[in-house]
Amino acid sequence: MAKNVTQAPALDPKLMSGLNKKSRRKNYTALTVVLSIISIVYVLPVLAVVINSFKENTYVKTNTFDLPFGEMWKGLDNFIKGMTFGDYPFWRCVLYSVVITVISTALILICTSMAAWYIDRVNSILCKTIYYLCVFSMVVPFQMVMFTLSHTATTLHLNTPWTIPIVYLGFGAGLATFMFVGFVKSIPLEIEEAAAIDGCGPLRIFFFVVFPMLRPTMISVGILELMWIWNDYLLPYLVLDRNEYRTIPIHIQFLKGSYGVVDLGASMALILLSIIPVIIFYLACQKYIIKGVAAGAVKG
After folding, report:
1. Cα 109 from Cα 119, distance rounded (Å)
2. Cβ within 8 Å of residue 218, ≥6 positions away
3. What CATH topology corresponds to 88-296?
4. How many CB atoms are located within 10 Å of the residue 268 CB?
5. What is the pLDDT of residues 81-129, one digit of tens each?
6. Is the model's pLDDT at 21 over the cut of 70?
7. Residue 49: CB partners within 8 Å, gap ≥ 6?
8. Of the candidates 51, 47, 93, which has an alpha carbon nearest to the alpha carbon of residue 253?
9. Domain definitions of the chain by residue range
10. What was the pLDDT predicted at 256?
11. Which of 71, 69, 288, 99 has its CA nearest to residue 183?
12. What's the pLDDT score for residue 108?
């Protein structure tokens, strides 16, 4: 005789969908709370800079996170003192920072994009070796080569704002080449072949066909390199003649007085002035960073 087999009741698809939505909503809420806490932790140093840039120097250490009211309020005096400190004009610091940042970023973008295109399209043993050397340079700490680099830059007369971009090209080529190679792999080779049939040479193919298509990664790499070079302190400090050429980070370091006394109020004011352009530029272009990184993250 056949045994009676009881079947489990079928679950309602609508009920399961509702449970999945509730579970996902809980996960999103927990993730939002965690990321919000992390964001607050990262924002706190910037908030401290903003608050202390308007505060009397004596209260910066003792009342770091207090709002600058009453006797703590310094107003714009910290900004004026920071910009007029010493005999070196502050506008020259801004000029040298802009010159170094713009030239270095442009040089990195043009040279590494061309190198990445050649590396991917030729794909020889030599090109693969150069590519892996660029990738390897990303993990080499600057402190390992800074003293040798300083001596080499002085010997080759690369210690001016107009020649130091060559040094920055060497340090920025690793990440830029890695990202550009990843994006070039996604460009169809047939487009370049069609341009070659129409009579374009290698340079015209790159600048009129490939270069416009590199725009997402170009913007992404440009933003990352620009923020790094603008805020860099150690390389200009080691390479440049500090009595003749100073960038904004070097000028901030010179606010230190005798016996190590530092005017923290004026320092915070200049730090705030230096990070405002970068923050505005980053907020305006942040969507291109994600797009560029995603575009460069292709298999190959």
Report:
1. 15
2. 109, 113, 292
3. MetI-like fold (1.10.3720)
4. 24
5. 888 887 888 899 999 999 999 999 999 999 999 999 999 888 889 999 9
6. no
7. 268, 271, 272, 275
8. 93
9. 16-72, 88-296
10. 72
11. 288
12. 94
Residues pairing with 73 in the sheet: 55
For residue 229, pLDDT beyond 60: yes
How many CB atoms lie under 10 A from the CB of residue 250?
18
Helix axes 125-137, 90-122, angle to 10 degrees: 150
**Is 108:95 a contact under the CB 8 Å cutoff?**
no
Q: Which of 220, 224, 222, 223 is nearest to 294 (CA)?
A: 220
Q: What value, to the nearest 5°, has the Cα angle with vertex 24 and ends 22 and 26?
A: 70
- pTM comes to 0.81
Rounded to whole angstroms, the Cα distance separating 49 from 65 reads 10
The string of pLDDT tens digits covering residues 118-127 is 998 888 899 9
Token readout for 199 is 């009579």
Q: How confident is the model at residue 300 (pLDDT cuts 50, 70, 90)?
A: very low
Please name the amino acid found at residue 251. Answer: H
pLDDT band at 164 (very low <50, low <70, confident <90, very high): very high
Instruction: Give me the count of residues in the chain.
Output: 300
Token code pair at residue 234: 């150690």
Tokens, residue 35? 């990321």
What is the rounded CA–CA span in Å between residue 88 and residue 82?
A: 11
Q: Are 199 and 181 in contact (CB under 8 A)?
A: no
